[in-house]
Design a protein that fits this description.
Order of helices and strands: HEEE
Helix content: 10-25%
Number of strands: 3
Low-confidence stretches: 5-30
Strand order of the largest sheet: 1-2-3
Distance between the termini: 80 Å
Structural class: alpha+beta
Strand content: 5-15%
Number of domains: 2
Shape: extended
Radius of gyration: 27 Å
Amino acid sequence: MHKTFIAAFAAATFASVGLNVAAAALSGTANAAPFCSPANANTPPCAPPEGPPGTCDANGVCGQIWCPGSGMSPIPQWDMNVCHTFYFDRNAPLTEPVMIPGQPPGPPPPPPPPCIPFINCLPGL
């Protein structure tokens, strides 16, 4: 019984080591794309082809970012391995939002007002 246990243990160990070596060899040769997220959306492999998000137009429509794994349904023509910039259609009902790829098309917002100390800004802040 003791010899049978040792033989079975040796066979299981050999099989386990063999499978681990094979898995490591296969994973070392695969060229997996980096996982893109909002945290690395500014790096070249993940940067949105439509440009960086966050720009708003004068109508208050702002560009947003979609990345793989964000939980939202992507637009079918998008590359599912990189982040994308989009905005929501203002004319769509709130119960059925429509995502439009790219930056908002409206004119840019006006510049902020000048700093007037103690009125609209505090000195030193």
